[in-house]
Amino acid sequence: MPQIGTVIRRTKNFYYVDIGESEPRLCHIRANLFHGNPKTNLVAVGDQVEIDTADAGKAGWILKMLPRRTMLSRRQSTDSPEQVLASNADKVLVVASLHSPPFRNGLVDRFFVAGSCGGLENVLILSKADLSTEEEIASIKNL
């Protein structure tokens, strides 16, 4: 009987799906589920999926993916397919150092743009403030 679960881990050949049992269920993905789009990672951590768990001793099968609320994704280049890193999250937490290594505004911007495009709330967490000067801290606050 099909059950709904959340993908909590992905390896090369398997997905681990939480269906409320003591251990996550190991699952395969049906080859025909995403026919015609083999180059992208179509199921990501956080996705809600319908799985077939008929045989308790064996791996289950992902039958269907439910619609995503949000997602964090990236592209390697303009002509490459989108790679979904995570889905159905509420926030993107970006942790950045103020001092060593130095703060990289461009990197934080890229994460924030990706989060905003995917419908996520962005949160910046700054570390090593005790090692930074007042000027360094003020420059970050003005961004």
Automatic annotation (TrEMBL):
A Pfam family recorded for this sequence: RsgA_GTPase
Transmembrane segment boundaries: none
Domain EngC GTPase, chain residue ranges per copy: 87-143
UniProt-listed SUPFAM superfamilies: Nucleic acid-binding proteins, P-loop containing nucleoside triphosphate hydrolases
Molecular function GO terms recorded: GTP binding; GTPase activity
Signal peptide: none
Protein name: EngC GTPase domain-containing protein
